Amino acid sequence: MKAWWRSPAGKIVLLGGLCVLAQQVAISYRIDFFGTTANASLIHLHAGLLLAIALLETDRRVVAGAVAFTAVGWAVRQWNFEPGQWPPLLWGLGAWIAIGFWTLACARWAGWPRDPERRRIDRRGLGRLVVMGLFVYPAGLALLGGTTVLIAEPAVAISSMFQTFFAKQFGVAVVTLPLLAAWTERGETAPHRSSRFAGWGWPLALIAGLAISLWSSQAVHAGLASPAVVLMDYRFALFVVLAWFVLRLPPRRSMPALAAALFCLVYAMSGAAEAGNTGLGLVNLFHLALEVDILLLAMLYLWVISRDRRDLSQRLGEESLRDTITGLPNLRALRLRMRNAPPARHELGFLLLDQADTLLTGFGLDTQARVMEAIATRLSDLVEVYYLGTGQFGLVPLNKSDDDIWERLVVRVEHAELHAEDQPVRLLPYLGVASLSASPADTVDAALLTASHLAFDARQHGEVLPRYSDLNDDRLRESHRQQMSDAAMALSCLRNERMVLYFQPIRRRASADEADATISGEVLCRLRDDEGRLIPPARFMRPIEAAGRGAELDLAVIRALFRQLRRYPDALPYCERIAINLTGQSLASMSFQIELRTLLADSPLPLSALCFEVTETAAISSTAMASRLLRDLRARGCQVAIDDFGTGMQSFARLKELPVDIIKIDGSFIRNVAQRGSDYALVQATVAVAGVFGAETVAEFVEDRITAECLGELDVDWVQGDLYSPPLPLSEVLANVLPREMSFG
What we know:
By secondary structure, the protein is an alpha/beta fold. The strands form four sheets. Strands 10, 11, 12, 13, 14, 15, 16, 17, 18, 19 and 20 form an eleven-stranded mixed beta sheet that branches. A five-stranded mixed beta sheet has the order 4-5-3-8-9, with helices on both faces. A two-stranded antiparallel sheet has the order 1-2. Helix 2 (45-56) crosses helix 6, helix 4 runs antiparallel to helix 5 and helix 15 (440-461) packs across helix 16.
């Protein structure tokens, strides 16, 4: 049920009643109006409260009702003081109607009331608020109030206007601005937290010292004819005490304290407001108002600046917990989460998305960020996701009892239909899971390192299922350190052009055992270390791709191939098909495509003799970019081959999206094809699908006659393997093709 005081009528009664009560609070002093001595109040709290209501309340009916209540309270007091005086009373009630409109107008000119999300006092709007509240609003009220006095006692009207102006201004200073700050910031907490006594010790001591000093000074002056002690003589100490309240307490406490201090200050200065109709009296009032206004403004600006600084610090702190591109929580947020609230399930996952870096080079930073956000959203009901870098996530499980959470997570990512610029994108997940000790905050980095080792090791071995480990898996850490060493060595060889090209023939299956004077085969890359030893691809391919240098390697191979071909011009007419491997990073690199076109324009061979091989995983992971590049190569006359076909998910479904001339069946299926089991059926299906697409098939890793005969039954077009020839140095193949009439395909 809605509280009665939240309804418009309830607000009118409550706020109007408060205004009437505020009218009864006065700081009395005697003022001489041209020989007529009268009692007056140095402060009109109800004026400040009315302006505060107009600034905060969006319902104008409530403001009008509060003004009406206050007008009735004034009328009752006026009738008690001057019974039977109808003209001033009626004129005064008419002036109250004008006061209501003036109050609303001043609130609007000050830029209030505001929407709830903008209802804060800012530095830019504080000056406007001060001008309207401390000067324009009191001046208008003084003029309207002076008209009432003008009817009853014209001689004192001018003096009354001055007195009314300062009384209204003090009311605004004591009530309006502190109340506005306290109400709009009522949900804020204390900006600083300290111990109960350490935080309050020195301000309490300062207040006590100030009180003792005032008391002792008053006691000393009591027996003397010297002037009494003035509170403003201690303005500096008062400033320090109020500044502590403003800086250390939330607004709902500091602002009432500021209002109380200002009220006491005005009360202490009331004696100096005598003789308001004289020049000295006016100077005294101006001086008092200036002192109060300066103190109020200093505290408000100090509070606003301190609040904005805290807000900026908090905002920067929150931003530091999120990745600047994706907006996802980052590693720092993960560490903070583990320190503040360790998970119920003591495990930590590291998810690695293969080929995620190709999204950046192929589609741009925004597309990559959207895909990463989509992955995080897809997993949010299973784990807390923390973004650690391109295609890398830290995962904290949500459910302690969900035993198969990691397997479900991998399946969900593997089957995710993601899109980049309306092109389907598929990223293969590799997941490592590490255990946490009883104190996860102390072991999060170690667990994350172990889980990342597992994920990268899974990618190296092509294992999509999650890999698990304890924290003390020294073997895995040693393997990761070895990979880092291999990466440094491979990049050094690449930069220094210590590269050797090998060549493994690919023969037509129908005439594989017959001599042929043509050269067909696959170019293979080997690196040579500082001691001259050859480094196999298994040691340098993964590190180079992990370092993002796959495109650089491919370009280096093509340049080296073209140089060797030019050294043997007599062998060029016999080159029927030279296959060159491309990494997934090359498929997604625009700079690679530009450089490749330049190299092809100066190719020593007809482009129809060049065949570019891409792995199925790389092609599917960046289908749009791969398709664009491969179609361009085919348009130039080159051939395109899909390598390791059959190892990925949805191989046949994705085949229609890629321009393919040759399908190379992965060797893992060829080795067991002679057993005529599932591998036999898969090879048979691949041959059938290739025929539909008008593509030829190549069987890799053919190592014995039985396998070769079985492939003949399946009508595989080409064969490759040690049965026919192991990889040989390319220079030997080119140098010996004419004298020996060697045929490799």
